[in-house]
């Protein structure tokens, strides 16, 4: 085999984070009776996704901390419009409002991480890679306590030789420090390692610039990779044919 070790992103590469989060947001809306503040629930959902994308992009670059992300991703949507449950700005967040945001976040993460949903083809791919004898390593920027719960919920825990998380590495993908840590943990060799991920900036460019072969799982083919990658696929089943 050309490769002996596979680094796999987890969220939205294998685990259907977006789909599971959509379900969890509906549950959250009901649990906290947010219909009191949002006559149209879609306003809350749209505001959440807009905020989440922005914060995770900034977190991956190292521009914000984990603690800031956890509070801010619900402060913004819950501060939207008049008469909402929060009135604090990000720079003047009261202790009560911060506690409320943290509580909402804890409930949301509990709902999300208990969902078993996988990306289409993920289980087949993992079974194939294991049969072929690859050493499989999860490489994720996700939070420690959440990622292990997701792994158990979706049944993929036993497939991974190593779980590499940014909180343990002290740096996020695409930082070279993340990949330095990953290779120390896995004892893999660059020349024999392939990185698979759905996020072009975080997973693919980070790995490519570190000197790794890359497989870009491009779920939105209208936006192909801007730079050459080793493989570009639109479904996980295509990787089974390649590997």
What do you see in this structure?
By secondary structure, the protein is an alpha/beta fold. The protein has two domains: 138 residues, Rossmann fold; 96 residues, DNA polymerase, domain 1, CATH 1.10.150. Helices cover 50% and strands 11% of the residues. It contains ten helices and six strands, in the order βαααααβαβααβαββα. It has a six-stranded parallel sheet, with helices on both faces. Helix 6 links the parallel strand 2 and strand 3. It is elongated. The termini are close together.
What does the secondary structure layout of this molecule look like, with pairings?
Blueprint: E1 5-8, H1 17-31, H2 41-60, H3 66-78, H4 95-113, H5 122-132, E2 135-140, H6 144-154, E3 162-165, H7 166-169, H8 176-186, E4 193-197, H9 200-210, E5 213-217, E6 231-233, H10 236-242
Parallel strand pairs: 1-2, 1-4, 2-3, 4-5, 5-6
Helix pairs in contact: 1-4, 2-3, 3-4, 4-6, 5-10
Instruction: Compute the number of helices.
Output: 10
The total domain count is 2
CATH superfamily of the largest domain: HAD superfamily/HAD-like
Radius of gyration over C-alpha positions, nearest whole angstrom: 19 Å
Q: In what range is the share of β-strand residues?
A: 5-15%
**Low-pLDDT regions:** none
What sequence of helices (H) and strands (E) makes up the elements? EHHHHHEHEHHEHEEH
The CATH topology of the largest domain is Rossmann fold
* Fraction of residues in helix: 40-55%
Using the alpha-carbon principal axes, give the shape: elongated
Report the strand count: 6
CATH class category of the largest domain: Alpha Beta
The biggest sheet, with number of strands, parallel, antiparallel or mixed sense and barrel status, is: 6 strands, parallel
Amino-to-carboxy terminus distance: 8 Å
Overall mean pLDDT score?
Answer: 91
- Strands of the biggest beta sheet: in what spatial order? 3-2-1-4-5-6
For the record, the CATH architecture of the largest domain stands as 3-Layer(aba) Sandwich
Structural class, judged by helices and strands? alpha/beta
């Amino acid at each position: 085999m050309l490769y002996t070790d596979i680094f796999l992103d987890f969220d939205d590469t294998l685990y259907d984070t977006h789909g599971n989060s959509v379900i969890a947001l509906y549950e959250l809306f009901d649990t906290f009776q947010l219909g009191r503040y949002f006559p149209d629930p879609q306003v809350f959902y749209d505001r959440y996704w807009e905020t989440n994308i922005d914060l995770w992009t900034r977190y991956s670059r190292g521009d914000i901390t984990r603690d800031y992300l956890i509070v801010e991703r619900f402060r913004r949507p819950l501060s939207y419009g008049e008469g909402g449950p929060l009135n604090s700005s990000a720079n003047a967040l009261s202790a009560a409002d911060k506690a409320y945001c943290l509580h909402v976040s804890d409930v949301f993460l509990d709902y999300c991480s208990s969902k078993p949903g996988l990306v289409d083809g993920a289980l087949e791919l993992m079974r194939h890679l294991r049969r072929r004898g690859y050493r499989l390593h999860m490489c994720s920027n996700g939070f420690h306590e959440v990622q292990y719960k997701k792994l158990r919920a979706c049944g993929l825990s036993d497939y991974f030789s190593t779980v590499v998380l940014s909180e343990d590495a002290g740096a996020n993908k695409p930082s070279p420090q993340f990949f330095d840590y990953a290779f120390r943990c896995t004892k893999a060799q660059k020349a024999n390692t392939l990185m698979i991920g759905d996020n072009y900036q975080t997973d693919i460019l980070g790995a490519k610039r570190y000197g790794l072969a890359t497989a870009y799982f491009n779920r939105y083919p209208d936006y192909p990779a801007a730079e050459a990658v080793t493989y570009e696929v639109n479904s996980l089943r295509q990787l089974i044919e390649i590997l």
